Amino acid sequence: MTQDLTGYPLALTGPDRPMVRFAGVSKSYGDLQVLDRLDLEVAEGEMVTIIGPSGSGKTTVLRMLMTLETIDEGVIYVDGNPLTHMPRGDVLVRADRHHLRRERANIGMCFQHFNLFPHMTALENCTEGPIHVLGLTKAEARDRAEELLEMVGMIDKRDEFPARLSGGQKQRVAIARALAMRPKVMLFDEVTSALDPEVTGEVTEVIRKLVAQHNLTMLMVTHQMGFARDISDRICFFHNGRIEEQGPPQDLFGNPQSERTQQFLSAVNEAI
Amino acid sequence: MSYSDFLVIHGPRLLGGTWITVQQTVLAAVLAVLIALLFGLLKISPLRPVRALASVYIEVFRGTSLLVQLYWIFFVLPLFGITIDKFTAGFVAVGLNLGAYGAEVVRGAIQSVPRGQWEAALALNLSPARRMWRIILPQALVNMLPAWGNLMIEVLKGTALVAMISVADLMFEARQINGSTYLSAQVFGTALVIYYLLGRLGVTPLMRWLEKTVARRMGRV
Fold this sequence. Notes:
The structure holds 2 protein chains of 2 kinds.
Chain A: E1 20-29, E2 32-42, E3 47-51, H1 58-65, E4 73-78, E5 81-82, E6 85-88, E7 91-94, H2 97-104, E8 107-110, H3 122-132, H4 138-151, H5 167-179, E9 185-189, H6 200-213, E10 217-221, H7 225-231, E11 234-239, E12 242-247, H8 249-254, H9 259-271
Parallel strand pairs in A: 3-10, 3-11, 8-9, 9-10
Antiparallel strand pairs in A: 1-2, 1-4, 4-5, 6-7, 11-12
Helix pairs in contact in A: 3-4, 3-5, 4-5, 5-6
Chain B: H1 3-43, H2 48-63, H3 66-76, H4 86-111, H5 115-123, H6 128-158, H7 170-181, H8 184-217
Helix pairs in contact in B: 1-2, 1-4, 1-6, 1-7, 1-8, 2-4, 3-4, 4-6, 5-6, 6-8, 7-8
């Protein structure tokens, strides 16, 4: 599919430029349109949570940012530079793998099912990328990984294989693993959905800590409304591949304007 | 002649043949693993011509008789100016043949590694080669080892065919002894037992040990 990209800037400049920008991004799987000309900006240091019914395109947004999915139309910018495209002369063309690899370094992601490498210990999971991608020495990577495992409360388990860890522990290691790459943007894709209810707290605590102590830009998809309300700067309610409504948590949860948002929130509240 | 007399007279020759069979098996096994890795990886290449090349290899070597392949390598290749001594031709034929079976095992094992592992490796920005070598292949190895246990037994049994090009393995010696003594039951019975014991006491325990070791390295035990 070719698209006219002449209207899109080659880069975003100026002090107010967002850390992440989706500009008119569309995506379909066959007949199913998952994203419909999405415009979304996330400021540096901002924590944005995406909520919405399943199939509304929430997770797709994160997967596109991580370059796990391609986009059909539009451009995604990260830290001012196009991610999905690259400048050639004075127009944008689709990014090649070298460009993707360079720009992807800005982004880290945690997955619903952790996806820890089962053949590596907690520590090795956290040093693999820093050693082989960032080129750190083993000692440097180890120091960095231990610092992060300490932060997520997993330093005692550094030499355990994932099979010996509980879900909550795995997810905390996965967060440390992603942070070890020093991303500018962190993505959390339903990181507590696969966990037993009594251990979700240990993961949300870590994310709270991150929000409080670091100036990371974060995008989160979650079904935990209370948690989202507590820590987000902004909530986006997705419906049918578009942002139906967005705003600060107290507005969106306390006084939703759109009828669909109201329906969704009342359905969620009933479930609790 | 009692069986013990038979063993005293012909045992040393059979043992010598067994030693050659062991060598053929080890060399063919190593070659089969290398071939299987190579063509298993080519089979999942993003490039269609590369995949096609792997398919052709696998179809040819899996779809035709090992004995015919052995004759080709030993008798036909010299007509094209490629002469290989019979010992080498023997294990090369067995290795190329079983490697074709192994390629499908490798491909299947790689593709059975969960998608999330590929995605996590990409999210860490590991290069494609590192994703495969450090993340995917070690996990695929665990999946494929039981199937390799079977294939290694096939390698061992397959080497009996190298007797047909006069490699002095266990089967060759057995046929020679049979030809001069007509003690068919004793000689082929003994060969049968030796082949079985090589598999039962050699190949199978080795593969089990490998499975356990790898599982331990994966933290599964």
